[in-house]
Design a protein that fits this description.
This protein has two domains: 12-250 and 360-373, Alkaline Phosphatase, subunit A; 256-356, 2-Layer Sandwich (Gyrase A, domain 2), CATH 3.30.1360.180. Helix content is 33%, strand content 23%. It has helices spanning 15-22, 50-55, 61-66, 79-88, 92-95, 128-131, 137-143, 160-165, 177-190, 201-209, 214-233, 262-265, 287-298, 307-312, 348-351, 362-365, and strands at residues 40-45, 67-72, 101-104, 108-111, 116-117, 147-153, 170-174, 193-199, 239-243, 249-250, 256-257, 268-274, 277-282, 302-306, 331-335, 341-342, 355-356, 366-373. A seven-stranded mixed β-sheet has the order 2-18-9-1-8-6-7, with helices on both faces. The longest helix is centred in the middle third of the chain and has 20 residues, at 214-233. GO terms for molecular function: hydrolase activity. It comes from Amycolatopsis endophytica. This is Alkaline phosphatase family protein.
Length: 374
């Protein structure tokens, strides 16, 4: 089976460097052609795929009207990688946030959102600045004298993931849509600079009820009102760029349970990734056999590649550093259609979710770029 390449278009990792270029930060280039401004906010709506927005344009008329182009988020199309792209201006092959879960050599499999071992949720003594040591976009802005503000859920203010990809920003914790809008507009009004704001709940409802479900649509309508409030309140000369970290698909009954599939477990010492894209870490000398077994078992339901093949296909960006390379599986399985590789015993919560993401389908890879100027 021929492996897919990433779409040839703008990447989520280009958004913040493009904003910083308009604000005069050295070394940044406005590759996305964002308008000149006296301050800008990048608002990330977790889980808002471009195809989902087009399919529900009547429920989000403001966003649909502003979304003139799309971006690719790269692989894996998941939140940790997307936040890494925003926070470093680089793809996963360099920032190293290689999935929802991924192996850090010598430490085991890390859940990037909880910063605990996976599965099992045991404590992991991992310094966020060791896991992701590259300068963040917020640090680069601050070093250039540009104010950098993060408007995000107050619960996440001191988490390791925040320290890994958002350090250097002035973190302003919020609790709901109302104070997210108020704090974002305050950041844009108070001084020329860069603001990053994040909204998570559309993704949460997509996981729980499915993308396009009634609950998801009702949340999308509220998100559109939130964006409308931000657009209406933009001070003169300020810019709002709305993006997302991934899209989403609803799994169907073709899924397979890794925990109950001995043909997939043979030769595998650890499993990471998301249900839609799995990092398969093999026992010494077992890579070829595992690759063959996964290809035979999953068949047309997934693209199954060796690590070298996935890197050569550009799945993780134009460059993969030696530091990051071992975090990607010896074998990588990226789901097609509505397929997924679950772990009903080891990952009962994740396996119960209807909506999933992480793979290379256009429904997951493509996100809107919606831009407004005050």
């Amino acid at each position: 089976m021929e492996l897919p390449a990433l779409p040839g278009q703008g990447h989520l990792a280009e958004v913040v460097p493009s904003v910083l270029a308009t604000l005069g930060v050295p070394g940044c280039v406005n590759t996305l052609g964002l308008p000149d401004n006296a301050g800008a906010c990048v608002l990330l709506i977790d889980g808002l795929g471009a195809e989902l927005l087009r399919a529900h344009a009547d429920d989000a008329p403001v966003l649909a009207a502003l979304a003139k182009s799309t971006l690719t988020v790269g692989c894996p199309s998941t939140t940790a990688a997307g936040l890494g792209a925003i926070g470093t201006g680089l793809a996963s092959g360099e920032h190293g946030m290689a999935g929802y879960t991924f192996e850090v050599p010598g430490c085991g499999v890390l859940n990037a959102l909880t910063w605990r071992s996976h599965p099992g949720r045991g404590e992991l003594d991992l310094d966020p600045e060791v896991v992701q040591p590259l300068p963040t976009t917020f640090e680069r802005a601050a070093a250039a004298g540009v104010a950098a503000v993060v408007v995000n859920d107050a619960r996440f203010a001191t988490t390791p993931l925040t320290k890994a990809v958002q350090r250097g920003g002035d973190y302003r914790g919020v609790h709901a849509m109302g104070d997210l809008v108020a704090e974002t507009l305050r950041a844009l009004t108070s001084s020329p600079g860069f603001c990053f704001a994040y909204h998570s709940q559309l993704d949460e409802l997509g996981h729980r009820y499915g993308p396009g479900s009634t609950a998801w649509v009702m949340q999308l309508r509220q998100v559109d009102r939130m964006v409308e409030s931000l657009v209406d309140g933009l001070p003169p000369g300020r810019v709002l760029a709305v993006v997302a970290d991934h899209g989403m698909v609803a799994l169907d009954d073709t899924v397979i349970d890794f925990d109950g599939a001995p043909e997939l477990r043979s030769g595998v010492r650890a499993l990471g990734g998301d249900p839609r894209v799995r990092h398969v870490y093999t026992e010494d000398g077992a890579e070829a056999d595992v690759l063959a077994a996964w290809r035979a078992t999953l068949g047309e339901r997934a693209w199954v590649a060796s690590r070298d093949e996935a890197i050569a296909a550009g799945w993780f960006g134009p460059r993969v550093s030696d530091r990051v390379r071992p975090r990607f599986g010896d074998v990588v399985a990226a789901a097609r259609g509505e397929f997924g590789v679950l772990r009903r015993t080891a990952e009962p919560l994740e396996s119960a979710l209807i909506g999933q993401h992480g793979s290379l389908t256009s429904a997951e890879l493509l996100v809107p770029l919606a831009v407004a100027r005050g």
